[in-house]
Design brief:
Two copies of one chain form a homodimer.
Chain A (H helix, E strand, L loop, with lengths): L2 E4 L6 E4 L38 E3 L13 E5 L14 E3 L2 E5 L3 E6 L13 H18 L7 E8 L11 E7 L4 H17 L3 H12 L3 E4 L3 E4 L10 E5 L14 H18 L4 E6 L14 E6 L8 H4 L2 E3 L3 H9 L4
Parallel strand pairs in A: 2-15
Antiparallel strand pairs in A: 1-2, 3-4, 4-7, 5-6, 7-9, 8-9, 8-13, 10-11, 11-12, 12-14, 13-14
Helix pairs in contact in A: 1-4
């Protein structure tokens, strides 16, 4: 019997096809192994072909926009939003609009074209997380921005136009719908229970254990109860943290769990394309009791280009309890 | 300057990249021309390979599940939901779930493997709409069901696993998130203005004309103000109609506008893959003053598999005003 499950935060319903539960080998998606050759604007030596870097991790002896860096953050060469100008919020009858003001940046995670987040050093993953944090902290100062969306598209199927490992961020003058909904829903739960809904979920999941993939001292990785996609994985801080920051000024534990999960996903699903999205509180309400920042990782295994787009309703052929087992048992 | 536009019903924001506005020829997507040869379970003569038909349009002289039909409705051979059983709604701590009870049906729109909704006769399109209506009316009698999602995936990229032209329906014991949100949002608008928000939009669009692709006596086709996708098109009744039904017992006008729009899309975008989804009021509140049924057509031109999934935030490289012009001027 298939199951209908509801995600308690977003309120979306998902069909979990328990009987025809799909195993990892049932999914055919292009493996994201790096190819050799070809010109890459993100490789060292080609710094002059990109917009000038905003920040870079590099020895003090090397000048900006020259080789020697270990990580670079740049404006996107083809930005979806424009950094200069006024918002000019306006209406057109029943419609609302504003100028497309915002920042669109690229985080080049490594100088080595062959590496991915799962194969680079753990220290390099820490640096990626620091880059996210530094950019968030800097963009927060611009009063035009209400939210920064940090995400990664790994693989062409997942929307990456360049193979060289990178993440992106988009600073927005509005709070995106999904984030706003999550905030409202978790606030409503808090208003009724005086508890964070994510904290309750984490506590229940750690008790039952059946959807817990891995935990370390500070974070837990789990298959959500009502995942949209096979092998969807969330990483959350075990303690209540409403926004993304380095506890005790360290991202070591977060880098450890993130890289471990990505290695497990690579192992079980043969380096699938994936997206991840950082969910954190909007700038104006960073410190709060009801929202809990987390990272949602969505492997791109099924062609979800169908009715799911328009209906907010999903069919997932792999129960999260089975996905958990496969990931947990992966020999990495 | 790019624009940030808000869809007034869903509340989602979309970036419209005005400057690098993409023209139809900028999109490369696989053309959905029919291939010849190969076994097709939906072709006449192969009726025994499908589950028995629920209804069919066929001469009285032909027995069920034999050739001679012009349209067939069948249970999906691999249903996402199961028709028999109880809902058994239950909780698991903070989570909610129920048995996956529902109907999953396929509407085979034509016996001719080579035809699509845009190339079959207009009368055949009318029959497809009648089939939707008959199934809705029948499934409404099952008190377990709250909503029927009717949709079409045209082309493999859009999620179709078989080429032979067909639509699908899923009867659900819950109202999907997107529908519930649209109902709540339009009810809120009505509570404040005593008007249907869709009626207001239609009136404004017909006045300005800049996003109106086509209208006939009863329906209008327009590019929404804040489309998620290039060439996204909505078809709506011009008068207030809260749920999908045949006014004056005829679907002739609806078939005319639907087929015309699909022909224009095929012409301008070279038979792209697409999805359409029927948005109608849930069974329990079919007759109401605030919601307005409509059809949303979403050509699959861009690889939207990126961060849009998780953020509810979209980047659309084609302004709807330009899409409107291209579609309006298509010589069909």
């Amino acid at each position: 019997m298939p199951e209908l499950r509801k995600d308690p935060i977003s309120g979306r319903w998902v069909i979990i096809s328990v009987e025809r539960g799909k195993r990892p080998t049932d999914f055919i998606s292009p493996s994201q192994k790096r190819k050799a050759g070809g010109f890459c604007p993100f490789c060292p030596g080609n710094e002059h072909t990109t917009p000038p870097e905003i920040i870079a991790f590099r020895p003090a002896s090397t000048p900006p926009n020259s080789p020697g860096w270990t990580l670079r953050v740049l404006p996107n060469k083809f930005p979806a939003l424009q950094i200069h100008g006024d918002l000019n919020k306006r209406g057109e009858g029943v419609f609302d609009m504003m100028n497309g003001i915002g920042a669109h940046e690229v985080i080049i995670e490594t100088p080595d074209h062959q590496l991915s987040l799962s194969t680079m050093s753990q220290r390099a993953v820490e640096d990626v997380l620091w880059a996210y944090y530094f950019r968030l902290t800097d963009l927060k100062k611009d009063i035009r921005f209400k939210y920064v969306l940090i995400f990664k598209n790994e693989g062409e199927v997942a929307g990456a136009s360049l193979e060289h490992s990178h993440s992106q961020l988009i600073a927005l003058p509005i709070v995106p719908k999904t984030v706003r909904e999550e905030m409202e829903s978790s606030k409503k739960y808090y208003d009724s229970k005086e508890r964070c809904i994510f904290c309750d979920i984490i506590s229940q999941e750690l008790d039952s254990g059946k959807r817990v993939i891995y935990e370390n001292d500070r974070y837990v990785a789990l298959s959500p109860f009502a995942p949209r996609d096979p092998f969807e994985t969330w990483i959350l801080p075990k303690n209540h943290e409403s926004y993304f920051y380095p506890p005790d000024k360290s991202f070591a534990s977060l880098a450890e769990i993130l890289q471990r999960i990505l290695k497990q996903i690579d192992k079980v699903l043969d380096m699938p394309p994936y997206n991840f999205i950082l969910h954190t509180s909007p700038f104006k309400e960073e410190m709060n009791d009801y929202y809990h920042w987390h990272l949602e990782i969505l492997p791109r295994l099924t062609r979800r280009a169908g009715f799911e787009w328009g209906s907010g309703f999903f069919i997932n052929p792999t129960p999260p309890e089975e996905a958990t087992k496969f990931l947990r048992e992966a020999k990495i």
